[in-house]
Task: inverse folding
């Protein structure tokens, strides 16, 4: 076998026993095949894909097909198998539940015994000695699903992991869902990424690929502008995790002294009660009795349940600014840490407490 033949033939994936790979050619996706179990993942859109399948096995040994989504470059090979191979029969086809009825109608005309199984995510498929979990991964399209093996740390990612985001709005794709999907995939232990296009990756590079895909997808929220603007766009879309990520990246990569970004990031952390992180970020501002910094730190302490510390911040605000809002917050902090008599001496807190009691 010469190098050219090897480049365009089915090959066994290095370091993973029993899984074979055919790289997609032009407008066709990659194909993957579990030899022992007979499962084919995606079918491509290249009628030559199965000419050399004999290097792997027999067409009749294909027992099931898993389609990551409904784009033609991943699915049309299924119909070529049904049309051109008599021994392709008695198979199960796993698809997103939204594809099930349409695919069943299209398959019916071939008169073959094919069972279409709709998936919503969370199901498990046994392959070899491992149970792979189906992941609902919308974004590229509405009907996108992935297959993940936690023991082998393998992800068949389809088009969910792309370093330059692609989402098909005609098929329910959206940048927001694309980003959320990547956020969740980043939390998984992944040592092998088997994508829908391009070569597969293993080892440390998988983390780099996921991080780059996530970062570039967030950048798409506000192309050609600063990461701080991406953070504002993320907040507008309700993507608070990505807003925090963008602000941290902005401070690290673009402007470490950007006051607006520092306070914005501190506010997000305050909402989660990360008082130590807030104090570290705002240390200089707090030491200089900055009103906004003291307020953010006080709220962070309240959300962390550190009410004595919160009372200290609000007491300072009251002494410096006398704002009724700060007096009420100071009273709340005192009340929560058991200093009830002191709390009721503060008129603004006492009025709020009485009003709440009347509405119970």
Result:
């Amino acid at each position: 076998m010469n190098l050219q033949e090897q480049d365009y033939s089915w090959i066994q994936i290095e370091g993973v026993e029993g899984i074979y790979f055919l790289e997609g050619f032009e407008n066709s996706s990659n194909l993957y095949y579990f030899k022992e179990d007979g499962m084919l993942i995606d079918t491509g859109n290249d009628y030559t894909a199965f000419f050399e399948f004999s290097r792997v096995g027999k067409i009749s040994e294909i027992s099931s097909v898993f389609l990551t989504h409904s784009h033609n470059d991943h699915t049309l090979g299924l119909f070529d198998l049904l049309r051109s191979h008599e021994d392709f029969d008695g198979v199960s086809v796993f698809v997103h539940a939204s594809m099930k009825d349409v695919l069943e109608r299209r398959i019916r005309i071939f008169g073959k015994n094919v069972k279409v199984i709709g998936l919503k995510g969370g199901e498990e498929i046994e392959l070899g000695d491992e149970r792979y979990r189906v992941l609902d991964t919308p974004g590229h399209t509405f009907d996108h699903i992935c297959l993940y093996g936690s023991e082998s740390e393998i992800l068949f990612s389809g088009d969910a992991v792309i370093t330059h985001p692609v989402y098909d709005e005609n098929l329910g794709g959206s940048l927001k869902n694309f980003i959320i999907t990547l956020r969740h995939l980043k939390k998984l232990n992944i040592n092998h990424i088997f994508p829908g296009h391009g070569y597969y990756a293993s080892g440390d590079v998988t983390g780099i690929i996921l991080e780059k895909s996530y970062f570039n997808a967030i950048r798409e929220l506000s192309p050609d502008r600063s990461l701080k603007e991406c953070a504002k766009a993320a907040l507008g879309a309700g993507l608070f995790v990505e807003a925090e990520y963008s602000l941290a990246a902005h401070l690290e990569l673009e402007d470490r002294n950007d006051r607006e970004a520092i306070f914005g990031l501190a506010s997000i952390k305050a909402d989660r009660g990360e008082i130590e992180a807030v104090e570290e970020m705002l240390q200089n501002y707090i030491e200089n009795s900055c009103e906004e910094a003291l307020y953010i730190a006080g709220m962070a302490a309240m959300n962390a349940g550190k009410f004595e510390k919160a009372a200290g911040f609000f007491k300072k605000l009251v002494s410096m600014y006398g704002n009724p809002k700060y007096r009420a917050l100071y009273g709340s902090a005192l009340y929560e840490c058991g200093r009830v008599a002191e709390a009721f001496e503060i008129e603004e807190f006492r009025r709020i407490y009485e009003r709440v009691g009347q509405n119970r």
Notes: Residues 1-7 have pLDDT under 50 and may be disordered. The longest strand covers residues 130-136.
